[in-house]
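Exercise 7 asks you to align residues with tokens for two separate proteins.
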Amino acid sequence: MAAALLVGAGAARAEPVILTPMSDHAVIQQGTPIVVTGRADPGEAVAVKLGSASRRVTAGRDGSWRAVLPAMRAGGGALRLTATGKGGVVATVDDLLIGDVWLCSGQSNMEFETRQTLNGGGIVAGSADPEIRLLSMEHKVAFSPETPLAPRPAWTAAGPDSVAGFSAACYLMVKQLKAERKVPMGAIDSSWGGTQIRPWIPSEDAAALPGMGEDVGLLALYQRDPVAATGRFAERWGTWWRGLSGDAPGQEPWNAPDRRRWKPVPGMTFWEQWGVSEMASLNGTVFFRKTVMLPRVGGDAVLELGGIDELDTVWVNGVAVGSSFGWGSPRRYPVPARALKAGANEIVVAVTDTYGPGGMNGPAAAMQLTPAGGAPVPIGEGWRYSIADEPGATAVPRVPWESHAGLATLYNGMIAPLGPIALKGVAWYQGESDVGKPGYDRRMAALMAGWRRQFRSPDLPFLIVGLADYGAPPIAPTDSGWGVVRNEQRLAAKNDRAAAIVTAVDIGERTDIHPANKNTLAERLARAANVLAYGAKQSASGPLIESASLEGSDVVLRFTGVTGALHAWSAAGPIGFELCGGGSCRFAEGRVMGDRVVLRGDGRPVERVRYAFADAPVVNTFDEAPLPVVPFEIAVGR
């Protein structure tokens, strides 16, 4: 495993330039060789020095060079890194510390700022610490892991200005670890709210996942030939639509729009604002149609559709010209000459909205079709719409280059550019956007495999936060997408040699998907980090289900990771446990006995046991750490 400082320049030059991911004030991982890479003139000698360690290397024929410095221990104060080229020209990075580096990633609950957490004002005011260094990665989408970072991110020492907007869970975790481990800490926050796990998984690891193999090839085609990739995706979209609607080939809305009933679009605003009752709260797919007259065609054209929320696929005279994702972001697509004709041209846009406002929101003045060498043709008025009321019309196919929801787009833009820097571990808080998408454990395994390869650490610790409680509390057992994700997060950690589940099921807020109590979460993250990364002899996660067995008429649950014994808080017995069998689940009465919970049989079939299996379960079973029992679903053994 190697820490890396990427050193290079856009073209061969005698003067070395030190680039991302390091800058002044960075922390370099202790205890592992330090790799410094860069570029210079071919054959140029480069002297690399960090503190008392130095190496001389020679740039290869392509100008690249690589120096490996010996591992260093924390302590000893700030260091300077220099790369000296011919003529004695020196590039410098100053104020580097040797310590531990933690990468924090995920969606909005990892992005959640320190100033917003409980007692955020006081925490921020007292945050000055020159031995805690922070790096925030800017949101960036990329289609290749070789995409360089620009602009260059900058490390900063912890203080009110840098901590206030930094990830609360990440900062509070490293703050506690620094106090306990007495070494400098570096924290990198690379998160993006609202994202699924899919864009964070490297392409080569996603290729083996269900439904993603074809997307890997499609994304590779898009990098070479976006027009060809759009056409191939449109074939998939068409197959999906024909299966959904029963339309024959050639009879789809983009090929035969007159087969549908169309109504005038009241205005280029979100459809919820039209004052039309059927559109007031619509989450679904709507086709838009516009006829454009062209006197002649002299080549390709550019189609500008204004803002669209959130998914769109666009055809001109039945030829697919674009498909993308964005919350109201402008759409601009090239239109090949073969899709155009003199006279009437039919533009059809399928817009899918899954949450919040949706539709084509203009402004109308920005909407135009510009033929090659010709004047723009305004297209902001005269649109018509037709609701796709076919069942399942919201579950449209999605392109793998779909911004921050595409395949590997955030790994490529926000993780891969970190290079092979060394890390102490990773804290991962994500999953809300994967509710309703089974197989999270497999996707998480693929992410961990890819990131460990990226950072050259096969046993890199991963701390996986289980979803916090959010939504209506259950009054009866029910299927829960949140319950499924929590259980699959547990399985992802259980099936990995260097991962731990960190539950937040008891510290969420029923009416807020972004709970403010990142303080307790950070304590639990630090506890798990102490076990996985530092060898502490304690339970990393708290009580974890080990087995469920039928003993007489009762079901006995055995747990590992219990500190002391289990206790039922504020009740005569544990709550939230369900016996499932015969096609249904029902709440069960039980009692705690040390590291076991015994559920009373009710004379009905029992095949599985679930615990805290709801969007916002109420839980009362804790050990003496105190940590809650981690939510689960498990088969009952005989």
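Second protein for Exercise 7:
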Amino acid sequence: MNDGEWWRDAVIYEVYPRSFADGNGDGVGDLAGVRSRLPYLADLGVDALWFTPWYASPLADGGYDVADYRAIDPVFGTLTEAEELITAALAVGIRTIVDVVPNHVSDQHPWFQTALAAAPGSSERARFWFHPGRGPGGAEMPTRWPSEFGGESWTRTKNADGTPGEWYLHLFAAAQPDLNWSHPDVRREHEDVLRFWFDRGVAGVRIDSAALLVKDAALPEIPANPGPGEHPTTDRDGLHDIYRSWRAIGDSYSPPRMFVGEVWLPDVERFVRYLRPDELHTAFNFDFLARPWDAAQLRASIDMTLAAHAPVGAPATWVLSNHDVTRPVTRYGRSDTGFSFEAKRRDTPTDRALGTRRARAAALLTAALPGSLYLYQGDELGLPEHEQFDDDLRQDPMFQRSGGVDPGRDGCRVPLPWSGSAPPFGFGPDGAAPTWLPQPADWATLTVEAQAADPGSMLSLYRDALRIRRAELGDGPMRWLPAPDGVLAIERGPRFRCVLNMSDQPVPLPTHTAVLLASGPLVAGELPPDTAAWLRTTPSASAQ
């Protein structure tokens, strides 16, 4: 890996701190827990850790409602512990990426509390989107923009005398008021936050909801078919000036800091504008994640992704899941193997054995593609989505705001199983409190302890894949090889091939000198359905 551009082909592991490991025994993951597991992460073979928000927060949305960017939430530890963790991780070759949530803050943030106490039209309110309502007495919301979490995106305030006041915008939950990025205080504060963490050794920043910051100040309704840049809340052209200023800050450090954006956009041409040389380094490739288990669909997504990134020289990113998405083992075992938030429903049946087989194969495909690889904690253990727990234990606002129609994201956020035969599976020290979300009782075979000694486990597959990936593959090109229908075959360099059989019949392997790794057993030298293999070839064979 090129240390100057380490992010181009890095393996980046997403840590959801509440659910990774509990160091103090209170049932909630923390920084001490992460630090105690650094040897595990180093053995796994990751290059960087991306931490979802660890800042002071009321945790109305899992920490994505930030009250203070310069303080660690007490449930996770202290700022000193964060600094020590950054240093300790780097000592074992692992960089740190932190999450920044620029679209909104917590309703407990000092700015918003001051704004609520201030009068309409005040400078304190100008940092947010306060606005009078429409209709008689201002009783109607300023717009009908929908919330990303379902329901309404405006909440009405009360005046000091108890009468109804202005409305404020929140594209997510009411506890997450949107910031007004045309206000200089907002830009200045976030630039200072970047410097605060870069000064502490953070190697990069992941930008949450990166396409939502800028709004149309005229507050128009959303057109039926908005053209490029015409949506009033998404992908506004003014965003790019913000990210250029951030890039300049990151580039002023030695080594330069990196930025990765969470950019959900269906328009590929608009998407890659964020990746121009003076803006973000990379952005998440959600198109690939959302595609169903279908060879033509995945090939189309790979082709589209690589073609879009090529003109701006940015590396692609590949990810199968994250803290918002149904885990692959569950998703790939369903009749609808794609993903969309709109389609999520409770009690959707799944075939775990089929899903596991496909998730193993998908792991090899994604790890073989050129660019950076993101791995969500627990996917290396083959954890399924936990869907069977009582509604009163669910904490995700997506579940609450949908009236229970959407099961929410709690199922992919369940604390990891480390050891033992019963919950809490070594998540914390002996005698620890119950985990903040319940673990399934049948996860004993999925613990790190159980899988570490099993060469056929999902954990062993990931360890082997990341080891070979580091030794064999970089950010170089790939090319497609001829293959039967339902089969994907790629070549990386003169001696490496990846073949994935998504058909319903076994297929012969192409010419090779050795099988480096396979997601499942070969049958009479053939590749069974829903199975992938990495092959060693000779330079002469690669020309075939």
